[in-house]
Amino acid sequence: MIRVKDAKESIAFYTDVIGMEVISEYHNNDAKFSLYFLAFDRSDGKDSKEAKDSGRMRREGVLELTHNHGTESDSEFKGYANGNQDPGRGFGHIAISVDDIEAACERFERLGVRFQKRLTDGKMKNIAFILDPDGYWIEVVPKNFT
After folding, report:
1. Among all residues, which ones are annotated catalytic?
2. How far apart are CA 51 and CA 68, in angstroms?
3. Cα separation of 18 and 57, whole Å?
4. C-alpha–C-alpha distance, residues 114 and 132, integer Å
5. Would the CA dihedral through 119, 113, 39, 62 be positive or negative?
6. Per residue in 14-25, pLDDT tens?
7. Which string of DSSP letters, residue by residue, matches the chain?
8. pTM attached to this predicted model
9. pLDDT over threshold 80, residue 57
């Protein structure tokens, strides 16, 4: 689970940029938080919303975004620690695999996605790191990564 400042912005990033879909949502207005479960569609669009919702915990990977209501409009809110710098070092990143890493990185570039590490940076030329709207790192690796 990762906490996000603005649920709409984060959901748009993970669906429109990364290609995931919201498979389930839970809203607790009394406690003022919402949970959004995202995953890649494995059914080629055949599964219903109900099937995706009921099967969310039987998948190999689901990203849970937690939004604490009000943070999106709080000018004093400083954001969450991304785990890669102090304070809050610990969590590092999530990873996604892509068919063609160069094409994926070119697409991210065109979409204005922020990079932590481009393919041309450093010694490892076969991975990249992009940043989501909250500054969480996403490692991008080719599907045939070894």
Report:
1. 139
2. 27
3. 21
4. 8
5. positive
6. 999 999 999 999
7. -EEES-HHHHHHIIIIIS--EEEEEEEETTTTEEEEEEE--SSTT-S-HHHHHHTGGGSS--EEEEEETTGGG-TT------SSSSSS----EEEEEES-HHHHHHHHHHTT-EEEE-TTSSS-TT-EEEE-TT--EEEEEETT--
8. 0.88
9. no
